[in-house]
Design goal:
Its cofactor is Mg(2+). GO terms for molecular function: uracil phosphoribosyltransferase activity. Belongs to the UPRTase family. Keywords: Allosteric enzyme, Glycosyltransferase, GTP-binding, Magnesium, Nucleotide-binding, Transferase. It catalyses: UMP + diphosphate = 5-phospho-alpha-D-ribose 1-diphosphate + uracil. By secondary structure, this protein is an alpha/beta fold. It has one domain: 3-Layer(aba) Sandwich (Rossmann fold), CATH 3.40.50.2020. The chain is about 30% helix and about 30% strand. Strands 1, 4, 5, 6, 7, 8, 9, 10 and 11 form a nine-stranded mixed beta sheet that branches. It has a two-stranded antiparallel sheet with strand order 2-3. It has a two-stranded antiparallel ribbon with strand order 12-13. Strand 4, helix 3 and strand 5 form a beta-alpha-beta unit. The radius of gyration is 18 Å and the shape is globular. The two termini are about 35 Å apart. About 35% of the residues are buried. It binds 1-O-pyrophosphono-5-O-phosphono-alpha-D-ribofuranose, uracil and magnesium ion. Uracil binds next to helix 6.
């Protein structure tokens, strides 16, 4: 498993505004999209490409095309949905599948309440979108789902991770060279409610303004 924390002053700045409890939902949504586009630039470094022959107005040349089938992007509802637009802006031909998952805030168990993915993911590159990696329970379930269907490799883009969640993911997938996590920040840790500290609060609530 490879973990990459994107190191860029604009990412740090946008993340700071996102963390601020006074940032309203419309600004939060806009910043989330912008951050994802910046992180996606790093996360897609290993996207599969092949040579393609094209004609420019001047001559024939060999360029670069995405290998088909193109990658599958999987936002984890709700909060991951706020990252979709920022991702598809960079990868407009990607297909999109959906996983609806919610963490039970008492047991911290991740429950899957919706799934709309291709049955067969054999050989596919998959990009999972979820802003928060807290205990890691949600991503471990999501990755299991995708690998069980044959996904070849998984790159997850998150905004924040807690060291505890990363360690849990590492314990399950550490030996794999086909799991990548791209982040804007590794925060200090989890509080007594397993929220990320300093964090940004509940990402779904802040994106959509509904407190659950
Ligand atoms: O690493 P974990 O401890 O599993 O927690 C992280 C999960 O919690 C949040 O979703 P939530 O369950 O709040 O659902 P929501 O997106 O509908 O708000 C977040 O978007 C992750 O999916
Ligand atoms: O800090 C956290 C932890 C889980 N889910 C969130 O949205 N935020
Ligand atoms: Mg939530």
């Amino acid at each position: 498993m490879r973990v990459l924390v994107a190191d860029h002053p604009l990412i740090a700045h946008k993340l700071t505004v996102l963390r601020d409890k006074n940032t309203p939902s419309p600004v939060f949504r806009q910043l989330t999209e912008e951050l994802v586009t910046l992180l996606a630039y790093e996360a897609t470094r290993q996207v599969r490409v092949e040579p393609v022959n094209i004609e420019t107005p001047v001559t024939s040349t060999v360029g670069t095309g995405l290998v088909k089938p193109t990658p599958l992007v999987v936002p984890i509802l709700r909060a991951g949905l706020g990252m979709l637009e920022g991702m598809t802006r960079l990868l407009p031909t990607a297909e999109v599948g959906f996983l609806g998952m919610a963490r039970n805030e008492e047991t911290l168990e991740a429950i899957t309440y919706a799934e709309r993915l291709p049955e067969d993911l054999t050989g596919r590159q998959v990009y999972v979108l979820d802003p928060m990696l807290a205990t890691g329970g949600t991503l471990i379930e999501a990755f299991k789902f995708l690998f069980d269907r044959g996904a070849a490799d998984i790159t997850c883009i998150c905004l924040l991770a807690a060291p505890e969640g990363l360690a849990k993911l590492e314990a399950v997938h550490g030996a794999r060279d086909n799991v990548h996590v791209v982040l804007a920040s590794i925060d200090e840790g989890l509080n007594e409610k397993s929220y990320i500290v300093p964090g940004l609060g509940d990402a779904g609530d802040r994106l959509y303004g509904v407190v659950d």
